């Protein structure tokens, strides 16, 4: 059992703590061992998971369009494509600390990343591309669309895109990152389990790592709240039901 625990830890690049190791082991071996057992065994072999860092705050611009906080921290959904959350995060690469930006949309039922886009500028084009990719993937989806009050989401152009797709807009309150908790949580996972563990000399290397991690997150990384299934598998089961 210690060998299997060590293998799971290594397979996920040291990012799994005892809880996720327990979920992975139990799923693979069809067991229901208590997490406390894995806590003890992980300490015996000296396995420690990486710790997430706090995300810095960013200044917001004057909005053209605002919307009520309809979601109001109701982060559960009854079906896939009922509620989508979105956000943009900053990353750096190269010896001069050049900036790159990742935009993503997350489904609140399946917890999968519906779409994402990476660019060197935090602009409307980045957010619009992310949105367009999501619509291409699920053209019949009309979710409640939730974001913070970043300038891209409060632009008239973005509001028009939402209206065209029949989506209702919802926005967090000013300065309340917790209002977009699921997206903040995903950024924490991505940065803790991939970004902070590596140095990226080029933009291309960073893009490749992000693409690989999001595929891993959607298709391999089990979530306890999803019956210990990866998001893509969980979504597929819901869609087939």
Automatic annotation (TrEMBL):
It comes from the Bacteria. Residues 59-239 form the Integrase catalytic domain. SUPFAM superfamilies: Ribonuclease H-like. InterPro entries: HTH-like_dom, Integrase_cat-core, RNaseH-like_sf, RNaseH_sf, Transpos_IS3, Transposase_IS3/IS150/IS904. Signal peptide: none annotated. GO terms for biological process: DNA integration. GO terms for molecular function: nucleic acid binding. Involved in the transposition of the insertion sequence. This is IS3 family transposase. It comes from Enterocloster citroniae. The lineage of its organism: Bacteria, Bacillati, Bacillota, Clostridia, Lachnospirales.
